[in-house]
Amino acid sequence: MDRPMLQAQALFQTGQQFKKTCVVDAAAGALNYGGDLDVLATPVIVYWIESYATECIRLAGRGCCGSVGHAVSVRHLAPAHPGSAVHLTITVEAMFGNSVRFSARLVTGEADTLIATGTHDRTLVEL
């Protein structure tokens, strides 16, 4: 028997925001990824966005659904130095069937320096 397709609208509302703080530790440094400076690596930014979006979907689905990523776009705009706290906000931008598009914004410091922006699309899957 076919099950109904998971609907993103059942889990989220457009504009809904999720926030978390990440710390730039030694493992997050660009020197580990072929970079030339000891600052936050772009691949780590992508990882933080993807893993947090995944976590938000798991929590919203209460263990009944997970997700797979199918698109990511990131603009890395400024450095974040080791020890920096980076505040990540992901926002539900759009939902289409069983997919969710999140926008991401990463800032650091007391002045909320913009570190990166991006979007990330995930498709819901039944667990």
Automatic annotation (TrEMBL):
Source superkingdom: Bacteria
Can you give the residue ranges of the Fluoroacetyl-CoA-specific thioesterase-like domain?
A: 34-126
> What is the official name of this protein in its record?
Fluoroacetyl-CoA-specific thioesterase-like domain-containing protein
Q: Which organism is it from?
A: Achromobacter marplatensis
